[in-house]
Amino acid sequence: MALVKLQTQNFRNLAPDPVGFSPSFNLLYGANGSGKSSALEAIAYLGLGRSFRVSRHQAVVSHGHSKLTVFGALDSGLSNNEDQSGAAEGTTGIAHRLGISRDVSAKETALRVDGEAVRSLSSLAMHLPVSVIDPGVFDIVAGGPGKRRQFLDWLVFHVEPSFSVMWQQCQRVTSQRNQTLRNGRLDESLLRVWDSQFGALAETLSDVREQVFRQFKAAFDAVLQELDASWTEGLKLEFYPGWDRSRSLVDILASHREQERRMGHTLYGPNRADIRLKLGGRPVAETFSRGQQKTLVILMKIAQGKVLSDLGKQVTFLLDDINAELDVRHRIMLAHKLQDLRCQVFITSIEHPEPDVLWGDRDAPEYRMFHVEHGKLTEE
Ligand SMILES: Nc1ncnc2c1ncn2[C@@H]1O[C@H](COP(=O)(O)OP(=O)(O)OP(=O)(O)O)[C@@H](O)[C@H]1O
After folding, report:
1. Taking 70 as the threshold, does the pLDDT of residue 241 lie above it?
2. Element (H, E) at 367
3. What ipTM does the predicted assembly reach?
4. N or C: which end of the chain has fewer CB within 10 A?
């Protein structure tokens, strides 16, 4: 599905006028501080339930207000057998309407799908798979395991939406287990109860993660093969579930009781999962150049899009401010791959975009271009 209409109220500096978007490419340009990132942030807010730029909701509400609203309409997007040049005609009307409003003073959130109130953010997220590529995304390679876990779990959720419930249950049991570990006098019998619940959840959850990782890996290998880049030779991506799965997690926890008690938290389990990226046995963060690391992240993001596109789901990619991060060759490669995947794409830039430069020797796909000024998007 693709977001074809967006309307916000009290979202950063954005004007409240409704804006219509293409299910294909959308190019947003404007001066510094005009509101380009805010527009992408509002789209992501619908699909993620939070900002991708800041953790405090307060920062996103327009100054002087306490309640924001984001409304979006989705159409069925570009189907895989559709000629992309006819994308605009290929739209089949509104498939879903999503709404989120947040009152930061009352700390209340209201979610709506097709006019009905829903309780869980995943009800919104499953309709709008939003993938952000901004300068912060490159931490997937350079940063800690948490970033890679988030990257994998985003895909796991969109392949298998029931994953979010499993994950929440697992988080709850982990935090109860941690509390028990932190108690002065260790209650061994209570801990065993948590261990058995945690172990069962962990095995199920890791099965799902492992299965989706395999799909991701196959898509990634296919993307690499098309690229034919010698620097990626010998590159290995491995899923680490958070413990040695040849042993039961419950056994591992029992044999590390003292260590966990000293640390005061759970040291093994799905909360420690990672995607290990290695070349010649060493982490790529130590061997790849900064540019190669960035390209690797882009390829991983494309592979995510490919997994979902093979399942008939269209990802909405938000490319915020990446001109300074990627050279022209890589920007063209990214645009081509996203076009091939028939994703919906939003790209921000300060300069007026030149479609000839963006798509290189290919014909540009259907796109809409917007000039952003004082929070208002005006189509050209
Ligand atoms: N809560 C808020 N309420 C009102 N305005 C805000 C709020 N937060 C930020 N702004 C303002 O909104 C404007 C748009 O910021 P935004 O980051 O979207 O700009 P941009 O076009 O992406 O800029 P750049 O090219 O510099 O990245 C800025 O002038 C900023 O000061």
Report:
1. yes
2. strand 367-373
3. 0.98
4. C
